[in-house]
Amino acid sequence: MALSQTAAADILSIDGVTKSFSGVKVLDGVSFSIRRGEIMGLIGENGAGKSTLIKIISGIYQLNSGRLILDGGEVSVPDYITAKSLGIAIVPQEFNLINSLAVFENIFLGNEIRLKSGLLDKQKMRELSARQLEELKMPIGVNQLVANLSVAEKQMVEISKALMLRARFLIMDEPTTTLTRREVDTLFVLMRNLKAQGVTMLFVSHKLNEIKEICDRVTVLRDGRLISVDEVAGVNEEDIARKMVGRTDFTRIFPAKLPRSEGTEVLEIEDLSSGGLLNGVSFTLRKGEVLGFAGLVGSGRTETAEAVMGLRAVQSGVIKINGKAAPIKKASDALRHKLAYLSEDRQGKGIIQGFNLPQNITLISLKGYLKGFLIDKRAETRKTAEYVKTFKIMAASQKMHLRYLSGGNQQKVYLSRWLDTSPEILILDEPTRGIDISAKHEIYEFIHELAESGISCLVISSELEEIIGLCSRVYVMREGKMAGCLEGSHINEEEIMFHATGIKGSIQ
Ligand SMILES: Nc1ncnc2c1ncn2[C@@H]1O[C@H](COP(=O)(O)OP(=O)(O)OP(=O)(O)O)[C@@H](O)[C@H]1O
Ligand SMILES: [Mg+2]
User: Fold this and answer.
1) Theoretical Cys-Cys bridge with 58: which of 90, 264, 362, 402, CB 3.0 to 4.6 Å?
2) pLDDT tens across 162-217, in order?
3) pTM of the model
4) Could you give the residue ranges of the DSSP H alpha helices within 272-430?
5) Ligand 1 pocket: which residues have CB below 6 Å?
């Protein structure tokens, strides 16, 4: 009796699911159930198997053994279309959008509305897309090309696309990595509404506070195995972290802050303007400094970095490097000045999916590996091995193409590429996007080491915690301008949000 009651309460049971790739087990007999109408969190280190499990549920991968039981009956999900017909929708970790199509076309891709005549009902699709984006408080024009969107905007389009399916089981693989707290709040309101309508959700995030806040229960995976399923109310963030990493000596996430740099100003930006998005941006970066850029989505942080890197046309402004005017018109000018930029758009502007680890890492620094006309493969392999060790990059071998690495591990490879250019000024845009909490710690320590060795780091982040924990000076951007510059104890949530929004007491 009790058994059948439990079964009735469950929408989906994952029963002994195992999956291997080329003989390597990435899911090993995973069993747990998701209750109808709950929000289940799914958490685990980079490469733990979260996305693989999600892809099995949504028909992208097939399990090797085990069963999926939906509404009490075993189901096979051979493809994405079947998943959709079963009422399952997914917000994937890596976007699946078509750059050359408009926002509304992407939202309805594969799910088009047609007129009686069989023609596409573009008007209707535009209207519904606009309404959905409005609900997400995302002012994106539905006719805009996806190619022109920022990563956060792309994320919202991907979320809208899944929501449009009106699924009863919604899976979200790290939907919040590029969103600021404000957008996360909006998403959570929406998730609570969906929950009230009876929609079940599986939510992946590396942010423990988000799991605590929005989920009813949390499942922890480690090395492809199930570790625990807990009611969120009964565990604290540290318990979850411990289960994830399998250690009890869980270290502090942020290293001790570096003192304010007294070094010379290596980068001076004066009055930079670009296409209505940047309206007279000025700032300075000192030698060996860890400088932060905070602000809401669309405030101009990424655009500033792109302008400095020669990736965006500017109408006016001066860039000085080491006290001298340095006209940077194109990417190669920036590289020559020893500038490096880790883009927030790892997928679109970063890694090359069909290249292996060394090919991705030495993409820009390749000159340094030439021996005559040939690439010194041994040097490349040696260097790659160093990065693999430093950042604990999880890959079956260096020959693996990047598309087969987990999201967080792809990010680590991308970071390695820029470090390999031996930069003097390193701009990191959302550097820990998709990185698990223990790996974050390693990256933060690394950034501090770089700064101590004299490299100037500019960190753009939507995670206030990261800005506050890491940076010794912080600029806050609003509407394409610097709204404030904070130091010392002024680097706190309240003051950052005040400058970001112009409103006092905007955080709850
Ligand atoms: N198609 C594939 N071929 C080979 N290996 C794969 C493939 N897909 C995933 N893997 C491997 O499976 C393991 C688990 O990857 P998965 O993407 O499920 O991790 P994850 O928990 O989602 O991590 P992250 O937090 O970094 O996104 C990784 O070691 C990854 O390299
Ligand atoms: Mg993943």
Assistant:
1) 90
2) 999 999 999 999 999 888 888 899 899 989 999 999 999 999 999 999 999 999 99
3) 0.89
4) 301-308, 331-336, 357-361, 377-391, 407-419
5) 21, 26, 44, 46-52, 93, 394, 404-409, 434, 436
